[in-house]
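Entry 12.
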Amino acid sequence: MSSQIQPRWSALTDSVLRKDKWLPGRSVPTDTWEHILREHGGFEMHDAARQFLTEFGGLVNDGWPSGPVTARTPFRLDPLTAEWDHGTFAQLSARAGTYLYPVGQANRRTSYLGMDPNGAIYIGKDSIHLVADTADEALEKLVETRCTDIPLPLTPTDPVPARSPESHQEPDADARQRWSPQAARVLCEAGWRSGRSVPTATWEYILREEGGFEIHEAARLFLAEFGGLAVDRESDRTTGWRDFRLNPLLARWDLEIFEELSEEAGTYLYPLGMADRRNFYLGMAEDGTVYVGMDYLNLLADTGDKALEKLIEG
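Predicted 3D structure (C-alpha cells):
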C-alpha cells in the first residue's frame, strides 16, 4: 500500500490558490464578517462556512489578466459581497432546499457563492446550481471549469449595498451631540448606532497578509465603530461627497499608493475606505486625523467624527 499523501487539488488549482495568497495552515479570523453580515442582513454563520472562510476567506482571483495561473470561473471569497441581500439568499436557500451562508461571489460578481451546513457549495443569483459537495472540489471546479454560460462583464461592478429601510434607528442623544442633524440621520440610515462595536481582526489579518499594512489604535477604534458602513447620496445630495465606503480592504493591493500618501502627509496612514465612486482613498493617521486622496492628498478633518460630517455635508 502506498504511503504517499494524495494532493487536495490538481497542480493548476494549487498554483492558483497559492498565487492568491493561500498557504497550508492559513487561518483568517472570521469575526468581522460574522458581525457585519449578522448586522447587515441577519445572516448566521454555520460551522462549515466558518471553517471554509478561516482557510480561504479573502482570496480573490478575478480571472484577469488571463494566463496559465488564472481561474476559469473568476471568484472573490468575501462574504460581505452579500451584505444587505438576505432576501436573495433566502430565495437561493429555498431553491437549494438547505440554508446557504454567503462565502463570496463568482463570475466577476454576477453570481453568489453559498455554502450549506454540510460544506456543499452552490452558485447562482436568479437560479441556483450545485458546484460541488465539498469545498476542495468546488475550488477545483471554479479554477478549472466555467461554472456558467453567462458572458463575463468587461469591468467588475462594486455598487454600494442597498439597505433595508427598517434596518436603522433614529438618531439618539449621542448622535445629535456628535454630529449635525443631517450627518446623524445619514449615519444612522447607514447602520450606525450608539455602542456599535465591529471586530476588526479580519480586516487587520488580510491587509497585513496582502499588503503589509499594520493597523494603529486610532484606526482600530474608528473601524470598530464605523467599519462596514456605506453611504450613497447620489439621489439626495446637494452638498458633500456622492458616496463613501468604510471598508479598509478596498486598499488591499495598494500599499505603494498609501506609502506615497503617507509620505505626502508626513505620517503613516492606515486605510479606512474609499469615496467618490472609488476615486479617492480615506486614510487615518495615528493621531486620528483623516486624509483623502489618490494622486494628491488633502486633509479632510482632524477627527473621525468631523471627517464623517464633512464627507456628508462638504
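Annotation: The longest helix spans residues 86-96. The two ends are 72 Å apart (CA to CA).
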